Amino acid sequence: MKNTKNFNIRRDIHKYGNDILHSKNFLSSNKNIQHSDVSVMKHSIKVAYASMWLNRKLHLHCKERELARGALLHDYFLYDWHSPEHCGLKNLHGFYHPGIALKNAAKEYKLTDRERNIIGSHMWPLTFRHIPTCREAWVVTAADKYISTIESLRLNKLHKFIKKKVRA
Ligand SMILES: [Fe+2]
Ligand SMILES: [Fe+2]
User: Fold this and answer.
1) What are the C-alpha distances in Å from 51 to residues 6, 80, 82, 122?
2) How many angstroms does the Cα of residue 146 sit away from the middle of ligand 2?
C-alpha cells in the first residue's frame, strides 16, 4: 500500500509536470548545484515529491497540479548561485531568487495565481513581504525548508531514502 502511494506520487508529478520535467531549461539546472552535491533540478523534484507527500499524508486538500508545478518551478532561477557573479553581499541570492524564478517561469509557462504565490513566497520569512497566501504555497515553503535542511546537513539516511523514491 505504502509503495503504491509513493509510486503514484512519482507518476503524478510526471503527469502534472511532464512539460517542465522535459524542458531544456529545467534539465539544464541539473548542472547547477543547490546544496552540497544536489543539483537544483534534483532539489526541485524532491521538493515536489515532499510537497505531494505532505499533502496526501496530512489530507491538506491542495490543488495537486498547481502544487506539483509550483514546486518544480520554485527555484527556476537558472544560474549557478555559487559562482562569483551571483553570490556574496551584492547579489543576496536568498532574497532575490524567488523573484527571478517567477520571472523566468512566467516567460515559459502560463502560471496560475497559486503557482505564482508558491514560487514568489517559498523563501518566507526571509522575504518577509512575500507571504504564502494559499495552502499550496505553505506546503511548498515547508517542504523546501525540510529538503534544504537534509541536503545542507547531508542527513544521508533520509537523503538516500528520498533519492530512492524520486529517482530523478
Ligand atoms: Fe529557493
Ligand atoms: Fe528550494
Assistant:
1) 12, 24, 26, 12
2) 10
